[in-house]
Amino acid sequence: MLYAIEAVLLCSANCRVLENCINRALYKIFGPCDDLDFLRCCIGLDYVKVLRERKYSRFIDGLIGNARYYNFILAHVLHMF
């Protein structure tokens, strides 16, 4: 399931669909649970929105860390003004 994050455009609707699928799987594996947040915390399963934000941050950090892309973006920003 988590590989789907790499394969689909993660708009809010897709995040909700993936969250529902994961929650359904957790229900089938662990049975009824009063606190799904606690269960996810115990097994180390982050929410799709958190995973999406982490992936985006790593992507941006990679661009900033790469001097070639940094200079490319900087040149375009300077030409805008």
Question: Main attributes?
Answer:
5 helices, mainly alpha, about 80 residues
Judging from the principal axes of the Cα atoms, what is the shape? elongated
Rg from alpha-carbon coordinates = 18 Å
Q: Report the average pLDDT across residues.
A: 82
Number of helices: 5
| Structure class | mainly alpha
H and E order:
HHHHH
Largest sheet features: none
Number of strands: 0
* Spatial separation of the terminal alpha carbons: 44 Å
Helix content, binned percent: over 70%
Give the count of structural domains: 1
Strand content: under 5%
Low-confidence spans: pLDDT under 50, at least 5 residues? Answer: none
Question: Can you offer a commentary on this structure?
Answer:
The chain is an all-alpha fold and about 80 residues long. The chain has one domain. Helices cover about 80% and strands about 0% of the residues. It is built from 5 helices and no strands. It has helices at about 5, 10-30, 35-45, 50-65, 65-80. About 0% of the residues are buried.
Short note summarizing the structure:
This protein is mainly alpha-helical and 81 residues long. It has helices at residues 4-7, 12-30, 36-43, 48-65, 67-80. The N and C termini lie far apart (44 Å).
Write the layout of secondary structure elements.
Blueprint: H1 4-7, H2 12-30, H3 36-43, H4 48-65, H5 67-80
